[in-house]
Amino acid sequence: MSSSIPRRPSTPEQFQKGRELAARVDLFGSPAVRSLWEAVTAAMGDFNMHVVEGGYLERSFNETYLPDNITEPRFVELKAAMDKAKAELVKRLRHEIDVDEHLKP
C-alpha cells in the first residue's frame, strides 16, 4: 500500500499551482523544456488512463492507492516511460537553472 496516485491535484490550491507552472513553462521555458513538459504530460495521461481502465486502484478508508505488486507488462512499461520523462524534464530544468545562475551579472 505504498504507491500513491501520480501527482494528481486534489485541492484548488494544487490545481492553481499546476496552472501557474504550466503558464511559466509556456512563457519562459526553452523549446527543449516545453517539449519535455509535453512528453511528461502525455506519459502521465497514458499511465493514469491505463491505471483507471485497468482497475488497479485500491481503496482503504479515505485513501486511494496503487498496490506495490503490479507486474502487468503494459503497466510496468507505462510507469517506466512516465518516470523516465519526468527525470528528463527535471534534469533539463536543473541544467537551465544552473546556466541562468552562471549568466547572472
- Total strands: the figure is 3
Which consecutive residue ranges, at least 5 long each, have pLDDT under 50?
Answer: 1-6
Major sheet description: 3 strands, antiparallel
- Following the backbone from N to C, one meets helices and strands in this order, namely EHHEEH
User: What class do helices, strands and sheet pairing give?
Assistant: mainly alpha
Task: State the end-to-end CA separation.
Answer: 49 Å
Tell the overall outline: elongated
Describe the structure.
The chain is mainly alpha-helical. Helix content is 69%, strand content 9%. The protein is built from 3 helices and 3 strands. It has helices at residues 12-28, 31-54, 73-103, and strands spanning 3-4, 58-60, 63-66. The radius of gyration is 16 Å and the shape is elongated. 7% of the residues are buried.
Provide the descriptors you would attach to this structure in a database record.
105 residues; mainly alpha; 3 helices; 3 strands; disordered N terminus
What's a concise summary of this model?
The chain is mainly alpha-helical and 105 residues long. Helices cover 69% and strands 9% of the residues. α2 packs antiparallel against α3.
What is the secondary structure topology, with strand pairs?
Layout: E1 3-4, H1 12-28, H2 31-54, E2 58-60, E3 63-66, H3 73-103
Antiparallel strand pairs: 1-3, 2-3
